[in-house]
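User: As part of a screening pipeline, I want to sanity-check one entry by hand. Below is the sequence and the SMILES for S-adenosylmethionine. Please return the complex as structure tokens so I can compare it with the automated output.
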Amino acid sequence: MTYNPQQIIAKGPRQVAETAAEAIDNDAWLEGATYSILEEDEDRNIWRIDAFPTTEEEDQRLQELLAEYPELIVTADQLADADWLAMALSGLPPVRAGRFFVYGIHDRGKKPLNAVNLRIEAGAAFGTGHHGTTVGCLWAYNDLLKKHHYERVLDVGAGTGVLAIAAAKTGTKYAVGTDIDAISVRISNENAKLNSAGARFVWANGLNHKDVRKDAPYDLVFANILARPLVGLSQSIKLALRPGGTVILSGLLRTQERFVKAAYLSKGFRVVRRIHRDAWCTLVMQRGG
Ligand SMILES: C[S@@+](CC[C@H](N)C(=O)[O-])C[C@H]1O[C@@H](n2cnc3c(N)ncnc32)[C@H](O)[C@@H]1O
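Assistant: Here is the complex for your manual check:
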């Protein structure tokens, strides 16, 4: 029997939601399950878990596990067939992540009318939009855009430039990307042109370049690199952000989440959301005021 994908939503006090999320991480049946946890209502201390099972077994196990926490209110919503997650999980191009539709030249005929279409040619750079870390960043950014506008965005480790281009295409005036790899910078600039996006890319190690500092402080920083450089860059990222600004961190494994989170918590950031997809984790954190 084919499984009809659904989104399972569990809402409750932060402590309980976090304990349940940890139980999902530690459950052998749910290894690789995709879910996110975020603060829904700061004043009422309500957090929510959104889980996206892909099989009947995963669905049942998630429901069983969440039922062990009576303080959580658990509901399930049927997902539309063309839901972005189902499309992304199919592993086939193009990729839909919320309002974003990432496609290559061969799929140009499939562009939806109601999406922010991003034509990304990867060449030798990382980031066609298919990797769990890139999808996690686009997903997190899509949801942040529902409530916020970002005038200044920095993408550290731009790869194909997909994230800075996504920002430039959604109203960001100053969208800047940086990469340690010169070929990625060339490809990012080419992709910006293909998309008529006003994003610019700088060949730099981390944030250490006058052309990156020029447009600081940023309202939002993307950093999809690896856990160790994310920790090493935590102070520079803090200084590049305005107080209250947001960082979307990705490229870390679930098992490295604590290590990366600790570095940013110690610098006055707070966790706003975390998304687990396959073995990967995306963290959304806010700089203290
Ligand atoms: C995982 S890819 C992310 C690409 C793209 N942002 C995405 O989300 O698909 C990481 C990129 O970071 C670059 N990178 C790694 N360390 C860096 C550093 N210290 N400073 C700037 N870029 C770095 C790599 O060259 C690579 O292009």
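Points to compare against the pipeline: Residues 125-127, 133-134, 137, 155-159, 162-163, 178-181, 184, 205-206, 224-225, 229, 251 surround S-adenosylmethionine (CB under 6 Å). The chain has two domains: 6-78, 131-287.
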